[in-house]
Amino acid sequence: xxxxxxTEELAVKAAxxxxxxxxxxxxxxxxxxxxxxGRFLPCRQDAExxxxxxxxxxxxxxxxxxxxxKFSTWLHVVVANSARSTYRxxxxxxxxxxxxxxxxxxxxxxxxxxxxxxxxxxxxMEELESRKPDLIQALVLRDVSQxxxxxxxxxxxxxxxxxxxxxxxxxxxxxxxxxxxxx
Length: 183
Hints:
Shape: globular
CATH topology of the largest domain: Rna Polymerase Sigma Factor, Chain: A
CATH architecture of the largest domain: Orthogonal Bundle
Number of domains: 2
Distance between the termini: 27 Å
GO biological process, one term: DNA-templated transcription initiation
Protein name: RNA polymerase subunit sigma-24
InterPro entries: RNA_pol_sigma-70-like, RNA_pol_sigma-70_dom, RNA_pol_sigma70_r2, RNA_pol_sigma70_r4_t2, RNA_pol_sigma_r2, RNA_pol_sigma_r3/r4-like, WH-like_DNA-bd_sf
CATH superfamily of the largest domain: RNA polymerase sigma factor, region 2, helix turn helix motif
Domain RNA polymerase sigma factor 70 region 4 type: 137-173
Mean pLDDT: 81
Oligomer: single chain
Number of strands: 0
CATH class of the largest domain: Mainly Alpha
Helix content: over 70%
Number of helices: 8
Order of helices and strands: HHHHHHHH
Low-confidence stretches: 106-117
Domain RNA polymerase sigma-70 region: 25-93
């Protein structure tokens, strides 16, 4: 998600309390937020739910955007968190409806390779977050949002070397969770 200067300016105005700017900003970013949510969640309806949640989070928390980094960088974090939250919520609902989680990975004959991979990756990310929560944000910003290391360091307020180290360790942990077929 790279935005033009006008979008970045709308975000600054919205963060300062301009309601009209916030409304314009939400309309402008919605297609990008939807596309980005779809990178996390294979089912369009799930991605739409994550998109709406992300837009709601932007509206509620725009005052927290300080303008130290680009709005697009800040938004990556919001969208990634919303998509992961939606996934966890869907997983909980599935457990409640089915009574228990299936113990096996998706059947490749009934699940697309791409969709199955995304679900496996989300599971691995969820496991990583529960074991080593300090690693997950850097991994998501680099490998899912495809931000540059310097942007990630700026967004997280960490030294560049720390960011690179966290991403390396997170990738190693995810590879271990996913098994040899994902290396």
